[in-house]
Amino acid sequence: xxxxxxxxxxxxxxxxAAGPKQPVRLDSAYFDVAVxxxxxxxxxxxxxxxxxxKRARRLGWKDLRLETWQHWRLFEISSVQTLRRLITQPxxxxxxYVMGMRKKHMHPLKLLAFLVVILILVISSNSFxxxxxxxxxxxxxxxxxxQKVQAYANWSFTTGIGAIFIASWAIYRNRLGYxxxxxxxxxxxxQILILAAIILALLPSMLxxxxxxxxxxxxxxxxxLYGVKLAVVAVAFRQFFLVDLRREWPRLxxxxxIYLAASWVLLRVYAYFVLMMVxxxxx
Length: 283
What we know:
This protein is mainly α. It is built from eleven helices and no strands. 63% of the residues lie in helices and 0% in strands.
């Protein structure tokens, strides 16, 4: 009977190649390992021979800017995959991205820009805001002020990114070796999912013409969105920082309270500066 050839020995996994759910600390040594951070294949050249991704480096301000410029392609498979996974795994998507798995995920700033454009289009055609405008008989200066305030308000989503960043940095800045840019990546991915929820919440009021019905729905949806925001941030923090809920739930609750407080403060500071800018333009 012919002997079967012995199975080839399994090549050991390089450090950190098993995936983002391992508590691997991010530092320079992590990225020095010659392994593709997207598919875990060994690297012998600057580009992976298996998936084609360029060798990942740790994110910094320069890298974030260059990757945004180099990868500005709106419609690609990674866009669909990123959006689909963000619904249930926002923290894991962010952790995979900062760990170097960038080919499979859409760049966070590119996805954010896409959703901001959609949000502005939805807001500009939303019947709720139309019913808030003054009539043609109203003072023209008041109408102009309203238009300018509404235009600046379209960018209030930036306060959400700041609030998420403040909460994550305040509670988890020493966790797993993340730097400030990596905390910012998490905040952007969280806000992307929140913006998607806001867009979906605004869609029904685009079809209604009754001001009373629109206002009632607006009140209801605003409370619902608070719950969605807290859920997104809680899930993302637990996944990104690999939080053990049984032992570390008080820290997670503390981070959510900081997020709520930071959101409240930043939104009001933003509103104050918007009004100041509008007054300066009208003077």
